[in-house]
Structure formats: C-alpha cells, structure tokens
Amino acid sequence: MASWCSFPDIWAWIRNLPPITQWRTNSMSICICSSLNQPPLKLSIAKSLHSPSLFLSILADLNLPISLWTSKQLKLNPKSLHFLDEETISSLLSNFIEAVLNYGPSKIISLPKMPKISIVNNVKEIFNLCFLTLTFLICIYEAPSDIRCQCLSTLKGQLTSSQSREASKLLMRLLGSNTEEQWMRSLNLAITNWIVELQIINHPLKTPSPMFSYAISTTGLWKIQLYCPIIAMDIENRSNSADERLLFSLMYHQLEGVIQLNYKVLVQETWIGVLVNTDNIRCDVIRIVNENLMTERGAGPAEKHFPSKISLQLTPIPETTVQSVSVSRSSENPIREIGLEKALEGSLEPTNLGLNFSASETITLSFKPWKFEQSVYGNTADLNWFLHDGLNGREVVSSKPSVRALFQPKAWFKDRYSSAYRPFTKQGGVIFANDEYGENVQWKMEKCLVGKTMEWEIKGQIWLTYWPNKHRTLYTETRRLEFREILHLTLA
After folding, report:
1. Whether the predicted model's global pTM rises above the 0.85 cut
2. Which residue has better confidence, 426 or 189?
C-alpha cells in the first residue's frame, strides 16, 4: 500500500509558489501520480492572459496532454504578499468540494460557507484530502484507460491511510452532516462504478471498510459514523441467481450507520465505575443513484437490503485494570399471542339427503421483530440486536424464506416499507434507543487510574439481508460489514 508521503503535499506546493509576476512561463505543474511504465497525472496552475486570474487543471500528460478537470477561475489579489491570499484559497477549497459533490446522485442545493482559512484547524490536511478525493473520482470517471489502473491503486492506498482517516474527521466537521452525506454518496457511487467495472473483467477488488468509518469522542458521548457501499460488503450467504435489473438495484445503495453511546464515570471510594449505554443506533440503506435511473435500469427503489443483525463489542484497554463487568437484562422473549379459534359448520345437501361438515382453526401469532441480547466475554461487553422472522420466529440473518413464502403477497417481508406492521422505518432503516433496547454496561476499574486516559476498543458487525419485496425472484442474500474504532475516555 502506498504511503501518504508518496502523494505530493499540494497545499505546501501552492503556498510556496512565487508571485505570479515572477513566473517565467504561463503555468506551473507538479506530478501527482506516476509510474515507470505509464504517463503521469499532473496538476497544473495557469494564469489567464486576459485578466488577473488563474485556474487549476488536472492533466493526463500524454504526447498530447488531456485536461481531465478544470477549476473555476480564481481572481488574484494584486496587493497580497503571497501567491494566493486567504480568500482565494478558501474559494479553491470550495471549488474542490463542489466538484466532488457534482459527481453525486443529487443536485447540490447549497454549499456550506467556508470559514476564514486562518481560523480553520489543520487546514493543510483538509485541503490535501479534498484534492486527493477529487483526483480519485476524476481518475474513475475521466482518466484514459492506460493510466487509470495504476493511479487508482495508488490513490486508493492514500485514501485508506491513517492520515486520511484523521483528516476525514476534520473535513466532516467542516462540511456539516447534510453535506457530509452528499460527499460520501458521491465517493461511494464512484467506488461502486469502479468495482462493477472490475467485476465485468473478473478483477477481484477488496475495498477496506475503514475507509468509510470514523469515530468522535466528546464529553459523555462516543459516536461512530459508518458509510459503506453495499457492493463492498462481504457476502455471508446467497441462494439462486439474480437478474441484471435486480443486481443493479441491490448494488447501487450504501449503508449509512450511526452508533452513539453515552458514557459516565463514577469515582467511588475504592473503585471507579464506567457506565455505557445505548443512546442511538441508526442504520439506513440509501440509494446512491437517482430514482429515475433506478427505475430505468434496476428493479425499482423498493428492492434493497434491510438490516437483519447488529453486533457491538466494547473492550477497555488494557484489560488488566478491570475488576468486574456487569450488564443489564436483555429484552424479553418475543411476545407470542396465540389465539385459537375453532368453528364447526354443517349443511344439508338436498340431492343426496346427506350432511356435510367442515372445521377450521385460526392461530394468531404476534412477534416482537427485534430482540436485544447482552453478554460478557472476559472484560468485553457483547451487545446484539437480532431481527426475527415474523412467521416462524427464526433469526433472519441465518435463515431464508421458503419458496412458498417468496410468492406469498402477505408475507411480512413483502411490501415491507409501507406496511403498518413493518419492522423498519419507512425509508427501510432501523433505529434503536436506550428506552427499549438495553440499559447499560458497567465496568469497575482500579482506583489508581483516576485522572488517566484509557483507550476503549469498539468492534462491530452489521448484517444486511435481501429478501424479495415486490420483484418476483428466488434470489436472497446476506452481506456483512466489520469495523473497529479506538475511542478515549478520561477517568475523572
């Protein structure tokens, strides 16, 4: 995997360029991706011949250079002591962000207003990450085939590095939640298109899930944000085959998840208590192409995966400082209301003077669709949410419907996003809150740790399952995403 330092520091290069009046040529350029056997990809800055302005271009440096992307014109401040002043740098950063969002499935309604560069923390890392992401998307959509493969491999390595993950946290705070979602949908749409292209030529590609997750620790709250294209999730099981239209619908979605855990530190006379409980867990399966395209090329927006199991493991590091772990009760067993109704009917047949009798029996079952379980392994708290089949009570994640159920219009998974008894939100996701699914986990820690900062490992898995909704098919599958984050807690 390529390291961060192999990709140039675009921020430093731009900031160190001499004033435009000292240029001996009309443009300056830097190589941003190259290999021994392929032409390089370059970033070029050129000045306008007709006004005090300039523009940036990403070029494929072939015998005849090809421009793959060009920025908006940037006005120069003749009074500035630097090549670009703060206002121009801010405009350029906005230009990068807008260009990334333009590759997304929906039109940009409004961009967040960029604060002054001088008050943005770690602006260099944010600037470089925005340009790196834009270059990645441009390579997928615009680059000639003879340079795409090597450049994409290099850029993928940059985006999955630990430095990029840290920079992504800063960028997301700057963008705000609405623009963050648009940003990730643009990125994951590009990745989905790339993987589909590679699958056509039977080229295996493993997209690492850490690329799509980040964690934030604030006072009293841990938050993990997850984004992953469905096509990049591991396949747990599948049965039968799917037609092209159904595959299009299933693959052009992404998982968006939020895990929020409240924590509290209680300092006692001889020990320290750490209490953690579920604040909110939200999982949604979101379309990453517009509805018209989904209807035209796919099986319709109603055909998509649904969450079937969520699992979290919380572990303090180091574990040797833990005295004990306590968990609250799991949710009650599924409610089973069995109503037995018997009827005996008789009729007289005048033709043969005989009697006909018929008997019927009706059984009504009522299940709570989601069950929550807590357990402890060593010093690790294991939290699990399971979706159960509304007919037989089995866990959906490890079962599949019968052929008869697949064509039964009243089966619980049919019309599952509009039924009044659906186990999901109307958008097809799930929301768990602490008022219904679990109370808290408590660790008792050694008193000598007061004032120290501990690491807490949060590992998790999310399973998504597809059973037919309105489309007539025998195809079913379950996919799984794994993630791991380290969060920090000061025992005070």
Report:
1. yes
2. 189
Q: DSSP class of residue 103?
A: T
| Pairwise CA distance, residues 246 & 263, whole Å | 43
311: closest CA among 274, 276, 281?
A: 281
- Alpha carbons 53 and 91: distance in angstroms, whole number: 13
Which pLDDT does position 338 carry in this prediction? Answer: 39
Phi-psi region of 353 (alpha: psi -120 to 50; beta: other; left: phi over 0): left
Tokens found for residue 219: 């006072």
Residue 347: per-residue pLDDT? 52
**What are the φ/ψ torsions at residue 65 (nearest 5 degrees)?**
-55, 140
Q: In whole angstroms, how large is the CA radius of gyration of the chain?
A: 28
Write the DSSP symbol of residue 301: T
Q: How far apart are CA 38 and CA 347, in angstroms?
A: 88
3-state percent helix, strand, coil for the chain, nearest multiple of 5: 30, 35, 35
The values of phi and psi at residue 73, to 5°, are -65, 135
Q: What is the dihedral of CA 78, 81, 82, 83, to 10 degrees?
A: 30
Residues 6 or more apart from 352 whose CB is under 8 A from it? none
Q: How far is CA 317 from CA 163, 265, 294, 374, 453, in A?
A: 23, 16, 46, 20, 10
What single-letter amino acid sits at 148? R
Which letter, b or e, does each residue of 155-180 get, where b requires 16 or more Cβ atoms within 10 Å of its Cβ? bbbbbbbeebbebbbbbbebbeeebb
Alpha helices by DSSP H, listed for 258-319, are: 291-297
Q: Within a 10 A sphere around the Cβ of 73, how many other Cβ atoms? A: 14
What is the DSSP-derived secondary structure letter of residue 330? Answer: P
pLDDT at 337: 46
Percent of the chain exceeding pLDDT 90 equals 49
**Residues 6 or more apart from 252 whose CB is under 8 A from it?**
189, 192, 230, 287, 288, 289, 294, 298
Q: Residue holding tokens 């649904």?
A: 306
Q: What is the pLDDT of residues 89-101, one digit of tens each?
A: 899 999 999 999 9
Residues 381/355, Cβ–Cβ less than 8 Å: no
Q: How far apart are CA 155 and CA 152, in angstroms?
A: 5
Instruction: Measure CA 182 to chain center.
Output: 12
Helix H or strand E encompassing 384? strand 380-387
Residues counted in the chain: 492
Which has the closest alpha carbon to 17: 27, 8, 31? 27
- Tokens encoding 188: 């994951």
Element (H, E) at 219: none
Lowest-confidence pick of 193-207, 247-261, 447-461? 193-207
Pairing of strands 27-35, 38-47: antiparallel
Q: Which of 74-83, 247-256, 387-396, 402-411 has the highest mean pLDDT?
A: 247-256
Among 2-6, 117-121, 410-414, the minimum mean pLDDT is found in: 2-6
For 428, phi and psi rounded to 5 degrees? Answer: 100, 10
Is the pLDDT reported for residue 137 higher than 60? yes
pLDDT surpasses 80 at 460:
yes
